[in-house]
Design goal:
Blueprint: H1 2-21, H2 37-49, H3 73-78, H4 81-90, H5 106-120
Helix pairs in contact: 1-2, 2-5, 4-5
């Protein structure tokens, strides 16, 4: 069992390093029209937060703190756009969420946060139960 944990931890670490290394450094020159927030999410975020933003990923069992489930009602209520931008830029101490401010431009950070909010946190998502009165 100890071997399984070590292997999972090693595999998750390798996956995180591999995805982080593919992000371009010095992307400040990229303009907003060239930014693909879906590609940034897949490259940088999905290893931990999952393809569906629900925190279910290959790395989840190896992380000390579970990744945020963006599809939850709690996330929709608690995470403001500004707070999410700060977390992506600066990271969260004592969690696996590392700062991305040196690897992503401010425009890329804002674009990926807007992508997450629209794709996973929107109340209009079709897989959410209808609200009363609708």
């Amino acid at each position: 069992m100890r071997f399984h944990y070590r292997f999972a931890h090693f595999a998750a670490s390798a996956l995180l390093l591999a995805t982080a290394s593919r992000v371009s450094i010095g992307a400040d020159s990229a303009n907003a029209a060239e930014i693909d927030p879906g590609a940034i999410y897949r490259r940088v975020c999905s290893a931990c937060h999952g393809e569906k933003g629900d925190g279910k990923s290959l790395a989840q069992s190896a992380l000390a703190t579970p990744p945020r489930n963006f599809t939850s009602q709690e996330s929709r209520l608690r995470l403001t756009r500004e707070y999410m931008i700060a977390i992506v830029r600066d990271g969260r101490p004592h969690t696996p969420m590392t700062a991305r401010g040196l690897r992503l431009s401010q425009e890329e950070i804002e674009a990926v946060v807007d992508f997450i909010r629209a794709r996973f946190m929107s109340a209009e998502r079709h897989d959410l139960p209808p609200t009363k009165g609708n």
